[in-house]
Here is the input.
Amino acid sequence: MSVHDITLTVNGRKVRLTVKSNELLLNVLRDRLLLTGAKYGCGIGECGACTVLHGRECVLSCFIPAVCADGWEITTAEGLSKDGKLSVVQQAYVDKAAIQCGFCTPGMVIASTALLYENPEPDEAEIKDYFRGNYCRCTGYAAMIEAVKVAAMRMKERGCDDEEL
Ligand code: FES
Ligand code: FES
Here is the structure.
């Protein structure tokens, strides 16, 4: 098995790692960096539980060899909060009680954040469409859709730019 040296920026922190060619980004995040927000759900790119941000775009970390992420800037659910304060999206999920067992929640929150980067005022159909790749086994979608709407409204009311998401 070959090994490779890679550099990642994860939640603003640069890390250098030696990874095996078959090591997945999800395993690096969870097992080596102890960032357990991203979850192993299906392992085949179907459920979205492992979703993290690469820059401002969602990626499925169960589906990406770590070596292919060399040089990437990654944000996990842990990296959304700043100085102990939940992000706008995280707070909206709490306020709308959009969490049941919580297994899908980090991936959903990341996907919601990416959606608001892309479209700061999504309508319900656009939110539903964006959630196509993220499954909630507890089927709590209605509250999550409300949470995205609340986050969008708060961003607009506060005149926040998307750097503050
Ligand atoms: S665990 Fe990655 S998509 Fe399901
Ligand atoms: S809250 Fe349980 S899987 Fe979504």
Q: What stands out?
A: The two ends are 40 Å apart (CA to CA). Residues 3-79 form a domain with the Ubiquitin-like (UB roll) fold (CATH 3.10.20.30).
